[in-house]
Request: fold
Amino acid sequence: MKRVGLRLRLFAAALAMLAAGFTSRPLRAEEPAPPIAITHGKVYLPGGRPPIDDGTVVIQRGKIVAVGKDVVAPPGARTLDAHGKIVTPGFIDAVTAVGVMDIDEEPASNDTDVRGHMTPALRMVDGYNARSSMIPIVRASGITTVVVSPDHGILGGQSALADLASDEESEAIVRPVLAQNAFLDEGEAEWSTGTRGAMWLMLREALDDARFYGTHRAQYDSNASRPLSLSRAGLEALQPVVKGEQILVVEAHRASDIEAALRLADELKLKIVLSGASEAWMVADELARRKTPVIVDPLENLPARFDRLHARSDNAAILSRAGVPVIIATYAAHQSRLLWQHAGNAVRTGMDHDEAIRAVTETPAAAFGLKGYGRLEPGAVANVVVWSGDPLQIGSRPEHVIVHGREQSLETRQSLLLDRYRTLPVPRDGSR
Reply:
């Protein structure tokens, strides 16, 4: 009975820890954060400029106010000595399910499994949980911003941009609607339409109907227009896309599908970002000529399906050398914390080291029009990470994570459980 009682107490304590998750709370937006001066670090600069050694970054009121060698910390600033350490912008995971998935196979904690292949009005922000226990884990890995995306559907819905700074949605969500997402790959064709040609037809028809609706709302409201393929909510959601005001992220892997996406963008004058793109290296010169951003996972190095038979591990390196704006993402929830490792693998297969860091900071910010993100420069959003060493090396770790000018706790559910159960209590009778 004593043994059973101990187990019950341990189980209850574990449940309490799981429920509590991350206990410390960041400062609220209305509370003034003291200035922070990060001194003597190797500071990564935007625009392809080389990092500066012995640099200082000054943060005040949620913004970066100064960066350089001879910068003086303002009076009263908290000083973080980064001597021998690396200072980068906070990493951005450009395709992830952080905040909308905790347990993959549990429907109650997975808000990515949406039924239907034409759901352009779906907003991922409506399923976002700023209190997810996964968020502190991801943040403690140096990731300060995530693009929360749907994961299937010919028109799958609208991604959201979130900063991992607070458990209050009003403070975490930066853009409730960031981009529209389309999935034009073999898997989508199999379950939704049966053929690749039919899949492209459905996408073109939906975009054409949205363009028609935008100039014929009165006829639509009076039931005097031709039949349209989408609901009113879907047609409205596509208006920024067909007007060229909002990015359409197109996930396609086969080189011919990538070429089809480029033709579609030309025909309808769309702003697109390619995603997945396992065979993008085969059309690298054309993508570079157009300056089309491409989101890739460097760990996608084998032909996982028939639409990516030419996948290769140095895809990111080839694209980068050709001049394509390359973005590195994890396409995951639980593994988003390993974004640095994905970028490190791109370097292992030939990508320039500093370009790989830009691929998780500056380049995704530029591709999605996120002014002030992914850069260490005056006026930028103060999302900053101080690393113990090279951010792309397995032995390095974040020592300070700052989001919107506020340093975040590095405690996670795992670290709290480790501390709690590092030494188990021993019953008085010595049994276990």
